[in-house]
């Protein structure tokens, strides 16, 4: 009896390290496998590959590039999907016009860089424009059909049809590329050895600077969102709204105002992601449904309504797409959908989703 | 007052039983529709016959499978176009096409049932994956699964022939009739559309359909009574997949081709638009939505130019129409019709008194 009490106490008072040690104690085999996997993964990245290994798995440069591209693409997907998942988590409807907001933000950012020449300023423009559209949608349409989530979703679908046609009208069907400023263009040398020449000289990986900067920005935005959700008053209201919207409103909080704020923020994030996408790749007709689908897959894999889930899902989907492009050329896009189907079959609520 | 009303009602019922003439006059919309559809080949040219009415009936059949799931099961599945696409692709793979490298050239009476079976298996699998989730999740998951199938057909060359798809997939030749010809093809489409419609009407009133509607209204209560909710949902997906598969095969026989864009994201969304605009409350809604959509698609360009707009803004027109319907008449065109006829009846009753 007293042993049990002690046990409870130690759980209460235990730090993170103790919990980890305890978990390893309970699952020694799993811990060993995970540790080996981590070591193997670090070796894959840091060490130059032996020739036999390269013969089987291809050049290390290809793998490292796919890995980096996957992580940065995951950053982009996170920017799009986090707004999507936040809107769903709070308001309970799937915003099928989210891809349109992404594309609209990209076009507005393109116009802004054309007019002002400032890449950074275009983010502000895209955020504000998309946030205004988002506020208008929430204020004029969705507010009027509170609680009818299917109807709201259908409305977002109708809006996405109209938006995409209007954007084709204004900007045409050609792909548009947004140029990164000179300070961010060009490659950066990373301390990762790709291969060793016969002369014994080590070759280091060269990677596009703008992609690393954008990845860092995505990580900062992610951490900022986590802090805002967990450490601020409005974040507390949002979390309470996700858990029980009716109760929050019964306690006297202005839920409708919260909805507008969250929708504006989610839409603005999608708009900023549009510029990122336009700098990374390009924006054109059809990108809206592509990114809508990407966010769908990301949030289904990660768990609907969960920000950490969106981050995890974005990373998995981005990696799957890029690594798939290198190693299973014909089925790259199908690979991420396959992951989604497996997750659905095993854990329908998503990896980090709540029931 | 009440007594007068009751006697009036009794008289009406007695009248209704009196004869066919009375039944016809009570059901004049249905009767005239059937007459028009059956006699249409006598008056319409082959463009109207196949490309407008035939195509509407096919889209209506596929939309009917969506309507069945959404209206009676409460599951808005966006994968129905993909189920139809699986059947269409499989009939090209097992039957005849212009690609002897892929097509197996089986006779139609082996190829068509095989294609339907594979499509039903696919539809059931989609159902099994999404039946564990509810409501709004279903839309997301089926949309993602449907686009997965779209990308698969786009990127897979050994089976789906990638970007190009299949062409020259003729309707078969049997019972001494060449079903490729416009008029036989039209009657074949009409027959299967009517059959699917009747099947949905029947199932909706059968015990299975009633249990399904119970699941739609309150899954937890049905579970408590002892019904297997997931099994009912998956069975509904299987039945809907059968209808969609029939529509898919007819679609391929009519268009004589299938490619990834037949089942692309636009087509998936158009199908939902058709079902919602027509109305999810009654099976006829799917066909009404389809005829509106096909007519608009065929004549919108001329119409938009005629009123002085750019003819290419067709999608905006469709989107606006869809938005107006969703915003102002959630039960679609048949909802409008029901309200209108109720008002007429009410007005007529007042005049009668």
Kindly list the characteristics that best describe this protein.
heterodimer; A: 355 residues; mainly alpha; two-stranded antiparallel sheet; 15 helices; 74% helix; 5% strand; disordered N terminus; B: 353 residues; ABC transporter involved in vitamin B12 uptake, BtuC; two-stranded antiparallel ribbon; 76% helix
Q: How are the SSEs ordered, and which strands pair?
A:
The complex is a heterodimer of chains A (355) and B (353).
Chain A: H1 2-13, H2 16-26, H3 28-46, H4 51-57, H5 60-91, H6 98-116, H7 119-140, H8 149-171, E1 187-196, E2 202-208, H9 209-231, H10 233-243, H11 245-250, H12 255-280, H13 287-302, H14 307-327, H15 332-346
Antiparallel strand pairs in A: 1-2
Helix pairs in contact in A: 2-3, 5-9, 5-12, 5-13, 5-14, 6-7, 6-8, 6-12, 6-13, 7-12, 9-10, 13-14, 13-15, 14-15
Chain B: H1 2-18, H2 20-26, H3 28-43, H4 46-73, H5 80-94, H6 108-130, H7 136-155, E1 166-167, E2 173-174, E3 177-178, H8 182-205, H9 207-217, H10 219-225, H11 229-255, E4 257-258, H12 265-278, H13 284-306, H14 314-328, H15 332-352
Antiparallel strand pairs in B: 1-4, 2-3
Helix pairs in contact in B: 1-2, 4-8, 4-11, 4-12, 4-13, 5-6, 5-11, 6-11, 8-9, 8-11, 9-10, 9-11, 12-13
Can you describe this structure in just a few lines?
The complex is a heterodimer of chains A (355) and B (353). Chain A has 355 residues and is mainly alpha-helical.
Walk me through this protein's architecture:
Chain A is mainly α and 355 residues long. Chain A has a domain of 209 residues. Chain A is built from 15 helices and two strands. A two-stranded antiparallel ribbon of chain A has the order 1-2. In chain A, α9 packs across α10. The two termini of chain A are 34 Å apart. Helix content of chain B is 76%, strand content 2%. The longest helix of chain B is centred in the N-terminal third of the chain and has 28 residues. Chain B has a two-stranded antiparallel ribbon with strand order 1-4. A two-stranded antiparallel ribbon of chain B has the order 2-3. Chain B is mainly alpha-helical and 353 residues long. The mean pLDDT of chain B is 84. Chain B has a single domain, classed as Orthogonal Bundle (ABC transporter involved in vitamin B12 uptake, BtuC), CATH 1.10.3470. The N and C termini of chain B lie close together (11 Å). Chain B is built from 15 helices and four strands. Classes of the chains: A mainly alpha (355), B mainly alpha (353). At the A-B interface, α8, α13 and α15 of A face α7, α12 and α14 of B.
